[in-house]
Amino acid sequence: MPEIYTELTDPTAVNAALSISFTSPTDQNLVVAKTSLLQIFTLVVIETELEQPISVVGPQNGAQEFDRRIEDADQEQTFMGGDVMLQRSQREQVTKLVLVAEYHLSGSLTSMVKIRVANSKSGGDCLLLAFKDAKLSLVQWDPTTHNLSTISVHYYEQDEFRSALVADSTVNYLTADPSSRCAVLKFNQDMLAILRFKQREDEDLVLGDADDADRDYDPDDLFREEDELERKRVAAENAAAVGDSGTVPTSAAGLLKPDSMSYPSFVVSAAQLDDQITHITSITFLHEYREPTFGILFQPVKTWSGLLECDRKDTHSYIVITLDLEQRASTPIISVANLPYDLYRIVPLPPPIGGALLMGGNQIIHVDQAGKTTGVAVNIYAKKTTAFQLADQSELGLELEGSLVEPLEGEQGDVLIVTKKGEGIIVGFKMDGRNVSGLTLTKVPLNEKSPGALFGVWGSCLVSLGNRRLFLGSMTSDSRVIGWKRRGEKQTGENVKEEVAYDDDEDEYAFDDMDDLYGGSGDRKTTNGGSKNGLKSQQGSGDYIFQIHDRLTNLGPLRDVTLGVPSFSEEGAVRHKGVISDLELVSTSGSGEEGGISIFRKRIIPNVIGRFDFPECLALWVVKARKKQRNYASNSGLAGSANKAANSGEGVGSMGQEGDANADEEYDRYLITSKAEESLVFQVKDTFDEVKVTEFEKGMATVDVGTLGGDGRIVQVGDTDVRVYDCDLQLAQIIPMYNEETGEEPAIVKASFADPYLLLVRNDGSVMVHVCDGQTLEMEEVTLESDILRSTKYASGTLFSAPSGTILPPKPGAEDTKNTPLCFLLTRDGGLQIWDLENTSSPCWISDQFSTLPPIMPVEPPTGHGHLHQQFKSTAKCDIREILVANLGDQISKEPWLIARTMEDNLIFYKPFLYTRTAANSGSKEDSKSSPVLRFSKSNNPRIAIPFISGDNVSKVGLKYRPMIAINDLGGYSTVFMPGNSPSFIIKTSKSTPRIHPLSGTAVRSLSSFHTRSAERGCVYVDCEGAVRVCQLPEFNFDGVWSAKKVSLKEETHALAYFPSMSSYVVSTSKEIPFDVTDESSTIAVEQPVEGASVPPTQPGQQGPTTSSGTIRLVSPITWTVVDSYDLGKHEVALVIKTVQLEVSEQTKERKQLVAVGTGIFRGEDSAARGAIYVFEVIEVVPEPGKPETNRKLKLVVREEVKGTVSALCGVNGFLLAAQGQKVMVRGLKEDQSLLPVAFMDMNMYVTVAKNLNGMILFGDFMKSVSFVGFSEEPFKMTPFGKDIQRLEVVAADFLPDGNQLMFVVADAESNLHILQYDPEHPKSLAGQRLIRRAEFFTGHEIRTVTMLPRTSLPSPSPDPRTPNGNNAASKSEYLCLTSTLTGVLAIVTTVPESVYRRLNIIQNQLISGEEHTAALNPKGYRAACLGSGRAGSTEILRGVLDGAFLQRRWAGLSEGRKAEIATKAGVTGKGISDDLVGIETAMLYL
């Protein structure tokens, strides 16, 4: 059957970043590229007041743990001496990232630059994006839609730009002029595409030529003639293959748009700029030139380290060229030859230094505007590799290959260098007037207690954010925001306490306790006039002090993955019974000292604190109650809400003495439960004790419970009346629903609380609003003045206290701190109304098209004709059950979201935003003032609700509709929970959009927040089985689609496997150690490393050689700590770990589960690589006192050394198959604990993959693709069945059975996936000798593993479908393939029925051709296989593979009318397409 490829998680590795004022001229944004994901962040500064001894290392346990996002600057350690016990209180500022928007791109983003233009929609900068396949997209921020707007796209993929002799370069460079006059893309070896942008002076020139200087200039006058428009439009379309026409505008008028921001681009070869330019290494624009000027680093004569002795050392040249964009001419102005061969990058330096830094592996060279060079050697190898005159600082012993460089703002030209090892170097310049006379390099010392913790390893980008902030992106570790300051300086400003000016001679540690790293910067003093955020810095001459402010979590590289069972202690397993998912996914992550493992969970497994059975409970609420506050009357009762927010942890800092005294009042007091016909009240203590002596009405079912009057009144909402109690549950007021005039008594179906207001929605469609008086705490009905409120029938409603300027514009003359009570009402016709409860004479905002779920609300009639008009007139609507407006976010950022819930429990998110409508775009000429307008932007939510209980069994388990619940503080998050058949949390962090995280277990009847001493900031819920659980959120990261947790092992991780019988993970790690030369002829140590003398440095600064030393670690999933380790010999690293079933007895044929480890022994280039096969057993031992998880240990069963590295392992019918070197050998485990070879096969290639399926084996090598082989026992032999005839470098592969068809999923080194089939009956297979290629497509991410897993679905008769071996899965034997990548992406390849494939293929084609795509990219072209190395594509007619993630995202973002229109073309309804996509969500229900 056909296949569909679906990415389950987003990439987390950062490969590019840019600081830009993008969303507005005043906003400071950070744009981050994660291969195919573009994220836009804004920077916020949070002040924290710290009161603790500065000698404390790391975050403290206790009450402050929940504030870790703010207070600990990402839990980085300080490392002052233990004898320092200074105590001081000060305000510390940290910079945090808050996500504005994110976009999935149909392309691999490689670099980006900012372009300043005069007429952008937002008033800010534009963004020029460069992609791997030589494409450029110019985008801007559109404040009217809160979205990206594509201005133009430029592509240079034509054959005329390619060389017939040399393969295309895989690296494209994009650089822009600092004044945004032009940008240059270097692609295809030495081709340069130059794109010129319009500047304000260009418009001024046109204005000066106008005949009538007094009249307003209209640029449309230049293009009035329709025949000229049509002629140029057709010319632009027909000349698409020409370099000048490589620009494809986004409108029909094409290049003739009067407000276009760029001129037509043109392409030149580097040799046209100067004859000597060839083999470009780096290119970048320089500062301080009147005309666009860039420097080019190139290599006229290629060389390498082997030719250095042949006098081919200094082969690089540097040239500076200025451009005349009008004449398309160039002029060389500076040329420097005979530069070192290992230079790799040009770094432009802004004033006051100017010029450029040329970065090399062994030296740094500065070239000023006159061509004068000044260099410094950073290690002893510089003298051996170059004759260039360099100053000597070789004692530093630096390795600068792959280093990141960024000038430090306001530090008189100092430059920060971050090496690939995470070292920090400060480069200072010795000035002689305005000339650079020398360079000084100073190492930034590492924290000995946490080495490499500041800068990480293998950074990918380093960007200055201004205000002494840097962003360091990484592909292999967490990206981070880093700030710096100078020792001895003072900071004064609003809300900032002045720092004591310590004398460096008296106090060496005169800096903050959050300081992570400091380095010298020379002995000169620097000054800075000031900085942002109202701070003025008085800089001293001290060292630099660096500190981590924030992180972007990177869960990759996912080199290896495995599935394991979530484990808890014996006591915890009892508490967590019923909420533990079947499996969880564990992978390797990080590199070097940032290495560890990552745990992925598709569903939230709560941290259960207590559990008891209460089968009669249908709903529950937990409330706090306290006596009336003395000054509660201020702000119309809203001060109580402010108090709650402050005491719940939204503010930063401790509660103080009054908070300690009133701590008990902040905890919840009563638990109220509702049965079928009665309600009960329990007092919340260590146990739940029923409260009997109260006036609480127990003889009725409760609809909702809440508090008003600053928690001074408890409100019980019943079917027919509302009862108000004081804090001791004494009846204070009854509000009946009986209408004496009409004699009707409508029942209450929904209630919403927003102190001091209460909204009631009744079954006749009417609404009532009551307000609690701030003085008397009496409930009074609010008069609904508008006839619309009294006559309209409503289905749902919600209250929200909106801060000024968030949803509605600030009221004239109103206080900025006062919140506005808003009422959101959903009409039965599908409309949405917003009312201000302080003025109900007219609605604040109204939309009749809400139920159509448009991308932008309100929907405005289009100005064109055709299908857009039909879409607007469409009557297709969604059945919306309820709406809720609530704050979503964490301690750093919270913002209101509108959430709509459908009848199928699917959720739709809308973000409100205000934009300024001017007279120009409003069509009004009378009012030229700006008027803020409220709009809602739809956030795509591809998650489809998966029910736990089938429709026939819902009523049997007492499951009824319950509205969504907003929780102000759940583990530090402001969240929303949806109870019912698909219980889910809606969690949004400061670095994510709202995510749906389903709750593990079963259906939930009701949930409420729960805050006590034993369960702070937790929740309590009752499921459909009547189990009540008090729990907290687990300590996982919720930034991604799946919740995840990183566990640091402080070493590089290579492979891992799960050992089921002992519930443990076996992990392979390695670290760098000094190379030992004394054991060259000796045997490799097994139990202990060979003791020998390491090579000492022969000169100061010389680094001795290093080698890798591996360790096998046993990790307990209960505490995620290492409980046992087995050290391998020096030079030995475990490459592969597998859990296998081996036959341990030849007589009984008994099989035992063991751990097989394949290693490689690498002594260097001059020694042949060897390997070894280890077989371990995990045994049970006596645990250490107080550590029950240490009751397991690794036991070595057998070790056998082999020739060649062991690159692949798998179990085959009770035997162990190992790929060693170029051979594959099958071994059996004898009873004397030795391995006996029984069969082998010569592969002639290095084998990368070996997978087994019932005696059938799939091999993959690094050159000749895959082979399909069978293994038999009587006699022992391996028989080849078939192989792929194409040349392919296989990285990973596995089987994909589909009924009676056998497919193979193969991943190559070029990020492609290939679907092959073994079909002996196919005429072109030569009786099965050739594997038939069915499909191939491009994933965009480097795949490292492909794993076959069972596939699940939703069988309707089963009440519990979440078992991988359920009846449905077992009967059909359905499977899928899970892939993991280096960028942190998890994806699956599944098969779909032919009918479903045809429908979804039609939908995908309609979405590609009929919808606008981000950056004007082509999703279909993006998925086309990228076949490099001169390989030709398959001659077979291949079927396309569907893009599941693209279908999910784009389908969810469509309006209901557009869905119906597209689905009609596929011959089904919109619901039918959604049902087809459910199969993706249900494929892995066991996670």
What this model shows, in words?
The chain has 18 helices and 91 strands. With 1487 residues, the protein is mostly beta strands. It has a five-stranded mixed beta sheet. It is globular. The two termini are 25 Å apart.
Highlighted features:
five-stranded mixed sheet; mainly beta; five-stranded antiparallel sheet; 1487 residues; globular; 18 helices
User: SS-based structural class?
Assistant: mainly beta
Using the CA coordinates, give the radius of gyration.
Answer: 34 Å
What percent of residues are in strands? Answer: 35-45%
Kindly, what is the distance between the CA atoms of the first and last residues, rounded to a whole number of angstroms? 25 Å
Quaternary state of this entry equals: single chain
**Principal-axis shape:** globular
| Number of β-strand runs | 91
Number of helical runs?
Answer: 18
Structure summary:
This protein is mostly beta strands. Helix 14 (1394-1410) packs across helix 16 (1444-1453).
Q: How are the secondary structure elements laid out?
A:
Elements: E1 3-7, E2 16-20, E3 29-34, E4 37-51, H1 68-71, E5 89-104, E6 109-115, E7 126-131, E8 135-142, E9 147-155, E10 173-176, E11 182-187, E12 191-196, H2 200-208, H3 226-238, E13 247-249, E14 266-269, H4 270-273, E15 280-285, E16 293-298, E17 316-324, E18 329-339, E19 343-348, E20 356-360, E21 363-367, E22 373-377, H5 382-385, E23 391-392, E24 404-407, E25 415-418, E26 424-432, E27 435-444, E28 459-464, E29 469-474, E30 479-486, E31 490-493, E32 517-519, E33 535-538, E34 544-552, E35 561-564, H6 570-575, E36 584-589, E37 596-601, E38 607-613, E39 619-623, H7 639-647, H8 656-661, H9 663-666, E40 670-674, E41 679-684, E42 688-690, E43 702-708, E44 713-718, E45 721-725, E46 731-736, E47 748-754, E48 757-762, E49 767-772, E50 779-781, H10 787-791, E51 794-802, E52 820-827, E53 832-836, E54 845-847, E55 856-857, H11 867-872, E56 880-889, E57 894-902, E58 907-917, H12 919-922, E59 931-939, E60 965-970, E61 973-978, E62 984-987, E63 995-998, E64 1004-1010, E65 1018-1023, E66 1027-1032, E67 1043-1048, E68 1052-1059, ...
Parallel strand pairs: 1-91, 22-23
Antiparallel strand pairs: 1-90, 2-3, 3-4, 4-5, 6-7, 7-8, 8-9, 9-13, 10-11, 11-12, 12-14, 15-16, 16-17, 17-18, 19-20, 20-21, 21-22, 24-25, 25-26, 26-27, 28-29, 29-30, 30-34, 31-33, 32-34, 35-36, 36-37, 37-67, 38-66, 39-40, 40-41, 41-42, 43-44, 44-45, 45-46, 47-48, 48-49, 49-50, 51-52, 52-53, ...
